[in-house]
Design goal:
Oligomer: single chain
Distance between the termini: 63 Å
Strand content: 15-25%
Helix content: 55-70%
Shape: elongated
Largest sheet: 5 strands, mixed
Order of helices and strands: HHHHHHHEHEEHEEHHHEE
Structural class: alpha+beta
């Protein structure tokens, strides 16, 4: 009976804790795990003391009562926080896969429209080329149906990127110049599907498309000694962009690059590195990720 009286503020204190935790959920969400635990337990102690203060209004409350309710509030808060963390971790794989699926499925609508327009223009002029263009486009979209957690060999990703470049070559002709610099040892390394193609598309859109004389796109791959693979995609910039107009050179580059970077973070966390920057007359994207 005495114990029940000492801890009588625990349950109402828990309700107060839930109200405080819900009101602070955005702040707690931005904290890391240890700080979330510490803050949750501290709120539990405060809630227990608050409940004891409410009881003190109706009767005499001793020091042990304050201490007991503070401890019970902290313990109950720790149990609830632990449960919520475990529940969140249990949902993380499904949430991560959903994000990866959405990111991987993203292929710019303008590319689809441009490719179809190119095919329409070629139907009467060169039916064979139009048929090949549509086959390449079909392969690109088939790749988006793969499991976002699966991997494909680099040589398959290169073939996919080459099909995309073949489509764009029909559009731009001699304005699109492509150079491959590939390490044979890296060709069988596994990597996430549709990782290279968005980078190549970005280089074409922001290097070749806005330039009257076109641009050169270079794709390189190296297998490093630290059991990682280094991918690099560069494109030359038009004269106006070489003359210091960095705002123009980077405008619109964020969507495709952010997509790739987000996928790398979801799949490899800190083991992967991503950088994108303009160096003189060249825009360069570099990716390093563990080989598998």
């Amino acid at each position: 009976m005495h114990t029940a009286w000492l801890t009588s503020g625990g349950l109402p204190g828990t309700l107060v804790w839930l109200l405080m935790a819900c009101s602070l959920k955005r702040v707690l969400h931005r904290m890391d795990g240890p700080h979330q635990y510490a803050t949750g337990i501290a709120l539990g102690v405060v809630a227990g003391l608050y409940a004891t203060a409410m009881l003190a209004i109706t009767g005499d409350v001793g020091r042990m009562h304050w201490l007991a309710n503070a401890v019970v509030g902290g313990l109950m808060a720790s149990v609830i926080v632990g449960y919520l963390v475990l529940r969140a971790e249990g949902r993380t794989p499904a949430a991560t896969k959903a994000q990866l699926t959405a990111l991987q499925a993203h292929i710019r609508p303008h590319f689809l429209f441009n490719a179809l327009n190119s095919a329409i223009a070629l139907v009467r002029e060169n039916p064979a080329k139009a048929e090949r263009l549509l086959e390449d486009l079909s392969d690109l979209f088939r790749a988006t149906l793969q499991d976002p957690r699966s991997t494909i060999a680099l040589h398959e990703e290169i073939e996919l990127a080459q099909r995309y470049l073949d489509i764009e070559q029909i559009r731009f002709g001699d304005r699109l110049q492509v150079e491959w610099d590939l390490d044979p040892a890296a060709l069988n390394v596994g990597l996430p599907p549709l990782l290279l193609q968005p980078l190549v598309e970005n280089a074409v859109k922001h290097g070749v498309e806005p330039s009257i004389i076109g641009a050169k796109v270079t794709i390189s791959a190296r297998l490093l000694r630290k059991k990682s693979i280094l991918l690099c995609v560069t494109n030359t910039l038009s004269a106006s962009r070489r003359q210091g107009d960095k705002t123009a050179s980077t405008k619109g580059q964020g969507m495709a690059l952010a997509n790739v970077e987000r996928r790398l973070r979801l799949l490899h966390d800190v083991q992967a590195t991503f950088s994108a920057a303009q160096k003189d007359d060249v825009f360069e994207v570099r990716i390093s990720l563990p080989s598998s």
